[in-house]
Amino acid sequence: MKVLLIDDHPLILAALKTVIKGLGDDVRVVGVDTARAAREALRRDADFDLVLLDLQLGDADGFDVLAEFRAAYPALPVVVVSASDRGSDVIRAVDLGAMGFVPKRASNETLFEALRMVMAGGIYVPQMIMGDAGTGAKGSVRHSAAQAGFQTPAALESLGLTPRQGEVLALLLQGKPNKLIARELGVSVETVKDHVAAVLRALKVGTRTQAVLAVSQMAQPSGGFAAWRKSP
């Protein structure tokens, strides 16, 4: 696995490189300290498996870099590793396409778990104050790769979604736009819009990001995480 690590603090950059290499003997980490150097690294070799991005860079806004990389390299997962753990920053990062958000104060074990989850095709969001998303609750989200199917606990099933709405929810949580969801399910974009609206109403939220957070709150067991995902 090849990882591009972007952080402008030399000590943190060195420490994170050491930690990430602990994931396995086959892990190669390329560390850069500017957005410009990251762009050059990707231009030279786009064959990275994962990008870890700090939001506070000396030569660019981390959110802008996140949006840029997600647009230019849509198949390359980006995980934000930030000194911030504000709910608003987590939500904005997920909105812009981050596949994970790990506060720098998190333990090495948490970082390992988050990276493994993202590499398995899931999304990792830390424990956070959900009130920033307008839900008024605390929670955490862990979307991990299940062996098959859309695994949901009773709380999620109690929403009363139809099987088709469940499929739309799973694809929505993968960050796919309505056009791609329509193509995968073989239905019209208008039909997808209707299903998305029904899902948001059932969750009592107004945006897709709030849906991610709301589902995580319902899915997690007491004090822990829940694992669920729609298989590709």
Structure description:
The protein has two domains: 2-119, Response regulator (Rossmann fold); 154-219, Orthogonal Bundle (Arc Repressor Mutant, subunit A). The protein has ten helices and seven strands. It has helices spanning 10-21, 35-44, 62-72, 87-95, 108-119, 154-157, 163-173, 178-185, 189-203, 208-219; strands at residues 2-6, 28-32, 50-53, 78-82, 100-103, 123-129, 138-143. The radius of gyration is 18 Å and the shape is elongated. Helices cover 45% and strands 16% of the residues. Helix 7 crosses helix 9 (189-203) and helix 8 crosses helix 9 (189-203). Strands 2-1-3-4-5 form a five-stranded parallel sheet, with helices on both faces. Strands 6-7 form a two-stranded antiparallel ribbon. The protein is of the alpha/beta class and 232 residues long.
How many beta-strand runs? 7
Secondary-structure arrangement, i.e. CATH architecture of the largest domain? 3-Layer(aba) Sandwich
**Ends distance:** 21 Å
Largest sheet: 5 strands, parallel
What number of structural domains do the residues give?
2
CATH class annotation of the largest domain: Alpha Beta
For CATH, the homologous superfamily of the largest domain is named as Response regulator
Q: What does the average pLDDT come to?
A: 78
